[in-house]
Structure formats: structure tokens, C-alpha cells
Specification:
By secondary structure, the chain is mainly β. The protein has a domain at about 30-205: Immunoglobulin-like (Sandwich). It has four helices and 24 strands. The protein has helices at about 30, 180-185, 355-360, 375-380, and strands at about 60-65, 70-75, 75-90, 95-100, 110-115, 120-125, 135, 160-165, 170-175, 190-195, 215-220, 240-245, 255-260, 260-270, 275-280, 285-290, 290-295, 300, 305, 310-320, 325-330, 390-395, 400, 405-410. The strands form five sheets. Strands 1, 11, 12, 14, 16, 17, 18 and 20 form an eight-stranded mixed sheet that branches. Strands 2, 3, 4, 6 and 8 form a five-stranded mixed sheet that branches. A hairpin with a 2-residue loop joins strand 16 and strand 17. It binds copper (II) ion. Copper (II) ion binds next to loops.
Length: about 500
Amino acid sequence: MVSRRNFLGGAGAAGAAITAAVSTTAVSRVAMAALPEPALQTRPDTMPPLEPTNGRPYRPVVTLNGWTLPWRMNQGVKEFHLVAEPVVREMAPGFKAHLWGYNGQSPGPTIEVVEGDRVRIFVTNKLGELHSVHWHGQRLPNGMDGVTGLTQPGIPPGKTFVYEFVARRPGTFMYHPHADEMVQMAMGMMGFWVTHPKLDARGQHPLIDTVDRDFCFLLGSFDIDPGSWTPKVMTMLDFNLWAWNSRIFPGIDPLVVRRMDKVRLRIGNLTMTNHPIHLHGHEFQVTGTDGGPTPRSTRRFEITEDIAVGQMRQLEFLADEEGDWAIHCHKSHHTMNAMGHGVPTMIGVDHRGIAGKINALIPDYMVMGERGMKDMTEMEMPLPDNTAPMMAGQGPFGAVGMGGMFSVLKVRREQPPGDYRDPGWFQHPPGTVAYEFTGSLPEPARFSAERAGPASTAPAPAPAPRPAVEVQVRKPSGGHGGHGGHGGHR
Ligand SMILES: [Cu+2]
């Protein structure tokens, strides 16, 4: 039976069964005969957690604007099928990108297994060049490490390779190409991997807590010129799109939780710079790093965690404060979209009238931001087709003035357990929103030397005002006619 699975409609219904997918570019039926049918997903919505219906039980994660790859059990082995292929990713409403990814999306689907599982992954290469997949952070036989040329030949276009290993340690991992990886990762090829812990008889793990909501996303960066579709793969630093799971704000879904939920965020960084991820309204602990769960004695509370290139971090907190809390990268350039960097600062420059004159010469000329750049959020600027607004996203109080790596943690008392639907904007209790002061504004108190008399309590009297003096150069003393040059006598 061949049908495209509707993950929203029947979340978990098909459970772990690999469902066949319609794909016009499917590899040949003959070649696929022994393979699990590849599951595809092209919608950018956050899919509900995929509850396991076979294999050992675990609490599944939620992939922000993504999904988890179904598997099939084959004589005790968990079999997955990844298809490396070109994809179209909607990065934000109104803005689509031609990327490379896996199984219909960039990033690829999240792979979830349990510590001790034997895992077999079929990787089919539908790119036009060699490919291989590296299982970032895993303990595995060297020949399964996925480094083209070093531990295996590259997977030629049209071919399928098999990786097989035991998921030996629990934690947060990633997968990404190790063949032409500069290009393939710049095009969006990456995915998340979660190995859930083996639990003791009481259903616990000494270092890995059970949480109510477990979100994961990958940090990504792209350089796509406004009006175009394809990333510039040679860019090393000047990226103009900063993404979570290949989505940019306002395209990133909110992280919806019920008040008093224990929440875990798993974040991996496959960009070329670090990202200090900052959460408002709560303090979290770093409960896991690349090497696994952190010892409890090392955990301390933080509100920002810097995630370096190639790293994964697990952050955990109790969502005990209701509201709409910003969560974002704290590099302010990373909460902007499609920005040119060669723009002069025009704050404080009165260029009224100048734009009109220049427009007579250069029709599309535009000066921006004499009050700051937030003007851009309201600017009536004709954008080329398929362009992400630089800063966008409407909140209940107006433009949010953000893009890129930004989202909202929505903590609600009424949110039903396990419900990830957006509850809308927070209804603030009366008297709890910052408000405008409407009284009279007194003269600001400024220090005045004349008015400042000797203060009785001050330890020292204020210095008397001095007349302005010019800098005077003092020549070495004792000289008569001492300005005859450096060679003069002293
Ligand atoms: Cu950043």
C-alpha cells in the first residue's frame, strides 16, 4: 500500500510502522525491495511526538518545525531509511529556499532510539554527488563513522549504503554529511539524533530525568540573496539567515508548555560560529553536553548558554512562570533576517529630502533607519519575490522587530498535558504590563557645580569651578632662552 502519511491527523496512529510514501523521484522498486520504504515529510509544522509502539518504550521528543523518522523492527534491529535529496523548505511564510536535506526536509527527520538498541540505517543518495553520513558523537565501529575516503567510499549518486551499530550511550547527537561537507551542510543537510536512556526497575536513570516536554532543534545558517532561492555555499562568515531547524522567525513555532512542566531543550550547533542561547523568565541547568549527561554536582543555574560550533547542549528548567517568554540567540545580528552588512549607520542623520533627490538619479535608492533600524519593520519597501522580511513578526503589542534565531516559550496554566497547540498570546493579569507614565516630567536633575555648596554629609567638599584652561606645554625649567631646540643647554 502506498500512501503519504498524514502525521498531524493520525499522530502516532501508525506508530513505528514505516509507511510507504509517494515520491516521483523514488529509487527503483527493485532496489527498494529489501529496504524500509522511506517516509517523507514536506510540511514545516511541528509534528506531535511520535509515540513508540514497538521496541522499548521511551518518552519521545518534539522536533521544532520538524518530525521524527518512523522505523521498522526487523528481527530485533531498528531499521531506518534516510534519503539524501534536494528539498524545498519554507523557511518562513512567504519565503522558500532550495536546500538539500533528507526525506523531504531540511533538516532531516530526528532519529530516536534507546540506549542499547541495535540500529540499521539505510542511506540512499539522490544528490548529484558523493555523500556519506557521519553519526556525530556516537560510539560505533570505525567503519560506520561515515567519513568519505577515510572510513568508507562515498555513496555514489543513486546508491544506498547501510550503517549498523549499537546506540551505546544515551544523549543528544546529530548526523550530517562527511562528503563535500562544506557544500552539503551549507545547503542544509543535517539532522538530530536522540538516544533515550535505559531505565532502571523504577523507571529512572541516575543522571537523566524524565521530563514533560522535550524539544530539539539544530542551529543553522544560510546565505541566500534577497529574491533568490539557493544558498551561496562559499560563504564562511557573512550569513544573512540564522535558523532553527532551517526556519527563521517568525517562521519558528513557539515552544508551548503547561505551567509546572519540566522542560528539556536539546540544541545542536552546525553553523560556523557560536550561539549564546538565552531564555527569558526562567533559569535552566545544563544537564547534558556532547559527552553525555553532566554530573549533578556540576550543574548550576544559567539563563544563557553558549553553544559552540559542533556542540550539543541539553538545557532543563521548570516552567513555573506563566507568559510569553522570548528565547533567542543573544548575538543581536542573529535575530535579523536577510540583512546587508554594508549599510552605514544613519542614526541621528537627518536625511529628509535627500532621498527624494537621490531617487531622481537612482530610482530604487532608499535610506534607512535615521531613528534606528526598527523603522524597517514598518517600511513600505517593495521586496523582491521570495524574500524574508529583515525583522518581522507581529506580537500583541505591535511589531516584535526580530527575525532569525528567535522564538517564544509559551507557558500556560490551562494548556492540557501533551498539547502543543499554540494557545495564542498571553493574557496578562491586570496591572502586570509595563505602562506609560503620564504625569508631568520634571527637569532632570543634573549636577551643577555652582549650586553644589559644601555638603555637610559629604566626605569632601565639591571642588570649586575652575576656569577653562588651554593645555600648556611646560618646558624644562632653568632655561633662559630654552627654546632653541632639543640640542639647547639646560
Ligand atoms: Cu547566534
